[in-house]
Structures are given as structure tokens and as C-alpha cells.
Design goal:
With about 350 residues, the protein is an all-alpha fold. Helix content is about 80%, strand content about 0%. It is globular, with a radius of gyration of 28 Å. About 40% of the residues are buried.
Length: about 350
Amino acid sequence: MMDLSPNKTGVQRKGSYDVERQGASDYGVSERLLKTSSSKSKGAKKGKLIELVFIVAFQLASSISMSLVNKAAVGYLPYPIILLVFQTLGTVVILEVGKLMKTLHYEGFKWEKGGKKFLGVSIAVAIPMVFNMLALKYVSVATTVVFRQVSTALVAVGEFVIFKKKFKVLVILSILIGIFGSLVYGFTATDFQLLGYIYSFLYAVSMAINALYVKSIFDQLPAMSPWEKTYYQNLESTPFLILMALPVESFGGCLSDMRDLPFNGWLVIGASCFAGFAISVAGILSRTALSPTSFQILGNMSKPMTVVLSFFIFGAESSLKALVGLSMVLVAGIIYSYASRKR
């Protein structure tokens, strides 16, 4: 049995010293391991935050540029659905070129892996794009922003009915302000055209369905990369868009008009294809990282800047009442974003 009592000189025996030294050594190792683990945890959280900030900034920039470029594109080439076909095909081409150059990595098309799941997603994504482009042919960017606020209200109703989600009083108030502002704008805006407003309303409804449905599918595909989701979404959207374009637009007429496009027109059409690629990737990343409501909030955040830039580029709304209604819609979006944030 080891004697741990002090000796006559007051110094601990060797056995006791070794035990204490070993204990101190073990404690030091444990402390270092805890510090390393804590450091890794903090690093992971910081990395996740940086990634989320990038996704939000990328989505905002893509959303603003897409709205403005699409408005300019339909001005040069008044075939909204065919323009969307060019954008989806352009996205697939950019992805395939990136894959050939080995800068992007994703598997090819497989029906069982992603094709079946993305069939509904592609339709849900394509329909609001079509109605938005058709609306931009007749109304201003600001009008589509107003109807986008309507889609936020519809998403909130959908979450209440389907998911039994409860909302704060401030959220409900912001939705009511947004609806009232939309009505004020709708009855006084100088760009009023019945067909354009019908398309804008259908855009709002389809966007709400899109937000609720697509997120549920993405949650079922956690192992699929953003590039792969972008590939499936655009590849499967293209045939559907072509089918929608055939009864209402002329591919022959579009190609004929393209021959007469000025250089600036070609630049805008090319920019719309790259913007389509950017918004596809940004949308995939945002839908994967955020909830449907958060995705709608992010969409609202880009609208004030979109409206301001559209006024400078395409001309300002001249009706004072319409500007008041538009301001109410934008303020409602800000209040909604503030009230819906996680505490």
C-alpha cells in the first residue's frame, strides 16, 4: 500500500508527488481539449453566420438586378415567356460549362434521385416567373412590388390555415397596412392596365403557393447540392415554359425580331440570362437556409431599393396618392420583417 503521508522533512513522498503530477497533467490535457472544442464550436458558428450573411446579400443583389433587367429585356424583346426559356436554358448551359471545366460538381440527371421530386418544384417556380414577366410587359416594377406584398399576406394566411401558425399583433397590423396600401396604389397608379393587374395578382397567388410548397420539398433533399438543385429546377422548367409559350407567343416572330435587335438589346438579353442563373442559385440557397416566412421577408427587404432604382431608370410614378400607397406597402414590409424576426 502506497504511503501518501508527508515525511519528517515535510516533503511528500515520491509516490504522492507522481500522483499529483499525473493528475495535474490530466487536468491540463482536459482543459486544452475543452478550449479546443469551444474554439471549434465558435468557429463553426461564425462560419455559419458568414455563410448566412453571404446568402442574404446574394439573394438581395440577385433579386434587385433580376427585376430591373427583366423590365428592360421585355422592352427590347416583348416575348416574356420565351425570355424565360432563354434564361433557364442559359442557366443549364452555364452549369454544364462549369462542370466540364471542373469548377462545379454535381451528378447528371437521374429521374429517381431528383427528376421526380423536382417536377412539381419546377412548375411551382416557373408559374410565378411567367406571370411576373407577363405583368412587367404592361405595368411598372413598382406595381409588381406592391403585388409581391400581397403574396406575403397570402403566405401568412397559408401558414395559419395549413400549419396552424400564430402571428403577433404587429405582424397582422403590418399585413393590413400592406393590403390597404396596395388598394390605394392599385386604384390611383398611372400605369393601371387591367391585364397587367390580373397578371400581377396571379403572380402574387402563385408566389405564395411557391413559397409554401418548394420549402417542403427542399427539406426532403438535404444531401443534394445547390448546383444540383439549380440544374434540376431549370432543366425541368424549360419544357413546361415552352409549352406555355407556344399558344401565346411566336418563336418565329421572336427570332425575326432578334435579328433587328441593337447592340444594347443583345447586352440586356445576355445580362438577363446571367441574372437568371444568379437568381436561381441564390433562390436555392435561400430556400434551403430559410423558412417560407423568412424567404418572403428577404424578398420584401429588396423591394425599396428595387423601386428607387426603377424610378431612376424607367421613370417615376407621377400620382401622389399612388406614391403614398407604395410607401405604405414598403413600410408594411419593413414592419413585417421586424415583427417576424426570431428573438
